[in-house]
Every structure is written in structure tokens, then in C-alpha cells.
Amino acid sequence: MKCTRCGGHAEVKLRQHNASFCRDCFVPFLHKQVERSIEKQKMMTREEAILVGVSGGKDSLALWDILIALGFETTGLHLSLGIGEYSDHSTEKTVAFAESRGLSLITVSLRDEGLAVEDAVVFTNRPACSACGTLKRYYFDRLAHDRGFPVVATGHNLDDEAARLLGNVLHWQMEYLSRQHPVLQPTHEKFVRKVKPLYRTTEFESAAYCFFRKIDYVIEECPNSIGVTQLVHKEVLNQLEAASPGSKLSFVQEFLKKAQPQLRARDTEPPRTCESCGMPSFANLCSRCRLVREVESKRARRAASGT
Ligand code: SF4
Ligand code: ZN
User: Ion ligand 2 — residues with CB under 5 Å?
Assistant: First the structure.
């Protein structure tokens, strides 16, 4: 297998691009791909301060590394979710990456903030990923706003976006489809722009990138990911991709080109303000404050009954 660029020995084959690359050509190829995504979708500029959500996994660490290589001004934000050893290892990998490169990193422990994901699992009937998603969105928004970052970048990749799209289409979730885009503009003064520069990059590409760039990331999966439907959707899409390379990319890109602009134009109710914390909310209390209250009241009831 020869490198499409230099003719040397290729180590990665990208069937969706009908190309193969050696490691020296793959790294700049991926940089260029991500730069194109950022420019095509007008995600952000090099004059803006970017807050990068970093979990310690391959996608977010690859994203941070790529943004630095492309000359963006970045600060990492790591949320320690409070999911046992998995969270401890994720924090260790993130801190080690930042320290090895002298990067600026903000680390926030959800347990110290009063509600870890594990508490939500123990004290409510909500699925772990639903509670986790609520808390992550809330703290990304709040910390970006409070610390003056106009943009939050996250490491969602093509596999994530295609699986999410499939899930939304299977249930015709029009509200979610109208918000599925690699750039979300703020709809409230306390929201900031949210961007997904890896939306055309596959999991395989970010794993290969980390390998070639010697980025040490957390390999173990979150224990709460076992059995989640999104993994089934990813598996189905992988089968489609194997039979017809480029399916995932075209599924997401054609949706963004042909359907998303019409869905986006739908009138949606602007958020109000949470009575408790002052962040944007579609009800009197935002979803994070509702979750906190639910956990507090169930915790108090259990303590009172001694169970
Ligand atoms: Fe959070 Fe679910 Fe992801 Fe675990 S799998 S980090 S609980 S969203
Ligand atoms: Zn609130």
C-alpha cells in the first residue's frame, strides 16, 4: 500500500477518501481536513479565545493538539465527572497531556460542585448518560460565559454525529434535528458559540492521529456506556460503511446541506432564565438545577428513613 501523497509506505487507508497515507503525510492531511471544516462552517477565528472541552479520550485530545497546530488560542476545560476510576484515569491523562505541552487547563470536579454523575445515578431513575449530558452542557456553558470565552469546541467526531443523526431520524426528533449542526450560535446572552471541528473526522482517524502523535489517552470505556443505544447505531453504521465506504460522511454532509437549513429555520422558543442559577432555561429551573433539587430531596428522604 503506497501513500497517495508521497508514494512511500502507507500505514493508514481511508476508504471514504479513497486515499492511503504514511504517518508523515497523514498528520498534515488531518490538520488540513479539520482546518477546512472550521473554515467551511465559519466556526471560529484565530483571534478568538477557544475553550476546548477535553475528556482525556482520543477525540478531545486529538482536537486540542490539532487546534494548537493550526495556530488557535486554546484553553482546555476538563470536567471530572465523578464516575469512579474511569474519571480518575481520564483526569490523569488530561492533566499529563496539558503539562507535557505547557498548556493552560481548567479542571472542575463535579463532586466539588455538589453533584457528581454517580450521585445522579444513585438518587434518581435517570439514565447515567442523560444526567451526565445535562451536567456537561451546563458547566461548558457556564464556565465559558463566566470566564469570557466566546467559543467552546468539543471533540464530537463523524461517528458520533452520524449515530446521533440516525437516532434522531429513527424517532423523527424534529427539535433535536433542528439543533444538530457543527456550529450552534448562542440564543441567550449567557450562551456561547459551540463548535465541533471533528464532525467530518472518523474515530479511526483520531485514534491513528493520537498514535502517530504519541498522545496518551484513556482507552477504557466509561462503565455507563455499556448497552447505550448509540453504540448499536454506531455498529449499524459501521456495517453500512464497510459495504459502502463514505456512507457516514455523506449521511451527515447531505443532511447538513439538504435538510438542516429548513429545520433550522423553524421558530423555536428562546430560552428564559433559570430562577435558581441565572443560566438559560426553558422552564423556571434549568435542567441542572432540577437535577440537583431532585437529588437533594431524595437524599434527604433516604437519610430521614435511614435507608
Ligand atoms: Fe457520561 Fe454516558 Fe459518556 Fe459515561 S458514557 S461519560 S455517563 S455520557
Ligand atoms: Zn439553573
Answer: 274, 276-277, 286, 289
d(CA 63, CA 54): 9
Rounded distance, CA 145 to CA 65, Å?
Answer: 23
Atom of ligand 1 nearest to the CA of 225: 5
C-alpha cell, 163: 449515530
Q: Three cell numbers at 78?
A: 476538563
Give the closest residue (by CA) to ligand 1 atom 3: 129
Please list the residues that pair with 49 across neighbouring strands. Answer: 73
Cell of 20: 492511503
Residue 212 CB neighbour total at 10 angstroms: 17
CA distance 223 to 203: 19
**Strands, E, within the chain: which ranges?**
12-14, 19-21, 49-53, 73-80, 105-109, 151-153, 183-184, 193-195, 272-273, 280-281
pLDDT per position as a tens digit, 175-187: 999 999 999 999 9
* CATH number given to 31-219+228-271: 3.40.50.620
In this predicted model, what pLDDT tens digit does every residue of 108-162 receive, in sequence order? 999 999 999 999 999 998 999 999 999 999 999 999 999 999 999 999 999 999 9
Tell me, in angstroms, the distance from the centre of ligand 1 to residue 189's CA: 28
All structural domains of the chain with their residue ranges: 31-219+228-271
Q: DSSP characters for 64-112?
A: HHHHHHTT-EEEEEEEE---HHHHHHHHHHHHHHHHHHT--EEEEETTT
Nearest to 217 by CA among 81, 86, 104: 86
pLDDT at position 27, please?
Answer: 98
